[in-house]
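Re: Re: ligand-bound prediction request (bumping)

Still looking for help on this. To restate: I need the protein modeled with magnesium ion bound, output as structure tokens. Inputs repeated here so nobody has to scroll up.
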Amino acid sequence: MNDIILCKLGEIVLKGLNRKIFENKLMGNMRRRLAPIGQFKVYCLQSTIYVEAEEENADMDAAFEALRQVFGIIKLSRAAGCDKDKDAIAALAVDYLRDEMLQAKSFKVESKRSDKSFPMTSIELSQYIGGALQEAYPATRVDVHDPELTVHVEIRDLAAYVHASPVDGAGGMPVGSNGTAVTLLSGGIDSPVSTYMIARRGVRLIPIHFFSFPYTSQAAKEKVVELGRLLTAYCGRMTLEVVPFTHIQEEIRDKCPEEYFTLIMRRFMMRIATRIAKDNGAKAIVTGENLGQVASQTMEAMASTQAVTPLPTLQPLVGMDKEEIVQWARRIGTFDTSILPYEDCCTVFTPRHPRTRPKLSEVEAVEAALDVTALVDEALAGIERIRLDEQEDA
Ligand code: ATP
Ligand code: MG
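Reply:
Sorry for the wait, this slipped through. Here it is.
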């Protein structure tokens, strides 16, 4: 009989009446994530989501790893199934939990029956399976109060299941349960992490990349596409909006004082992001800004970029140390791609002495040399949209 995967829901169980909506959202996300791997049945009973293979030789290892990246799941366990017979269950437990039983100093068995016609009570079943395990692994003692290992036995409609030691899931809330935001995705280390953080809060994301060809190369764009693809493991499928940024940067270079280049460029990014957000019903702009990291990340600089948009800017990395951000980037699997040595539009016309404490009025005065509306419209008209689908091995 096939293995199954049991997923315990995180925060969404707290959501009262909305719970069904959250569960359905989560199950939809799980089904889409599993689709490239194989055919699986996904269903929810009593705040646990069950995943069963619906074909021979389904890759349960790949399914398990994929589900560990889906937001909204707090714990997962692999379970093995057998006939609903006490001796079959005992034999399965002895065999399936061998490694765990040999490692643990103490254990107990907890049983659950959703099929009440099973001819033993939960307590009787726990004692029976516990006895069989004790006999097979005499060095591991029974401890019902504080066991190192808890063996779970479940009698369900179609089969009995045995499992141990759940592992941590990604936590958070199901993507799509908390609205939509746009996220500014450069090729750097930070913005994939900020995108991940906001997706974890249940927000569906639309990544936007500003592209300054030929100052930044095709390879730089491919790198961002790859980062977006990696992020679909967590964010689900997305459409990357690649905004042509060359003309804007050239205009800034030609018409504004050098010390303001970065600030004005960032104000254009925010304006364009705002328009894309409005067109797609997105309600916030996510960036990977981090206080004090570079010249454009002072509070004054942030104020001058925030001034051009009515949307809240979400900056989940703002208080982190670089080392923590790097740890997250490694953990979510974007670091190695982020450090590929391709330039970003931010580094194309970098001022030698950027203004770090700009006054908003100064920035506005400098920017008056540009036809902001026409430049924004032109960039929006030239957007290239790249669909990013979930992959088997994202
Ligand atoms: P990152 O590692 O994400 O590039 P950073 O520390 O290099 O961040 P900046 O280059 O100042 O910081 O950019 C700050 C934020 O602005 C980025 O985190 C990202 O959200 C956004 N951003 C910068 N360049 C681009 C770009 N070319 N396209 C889209 N967003 C960008
Ligand atoms: Mg950058």
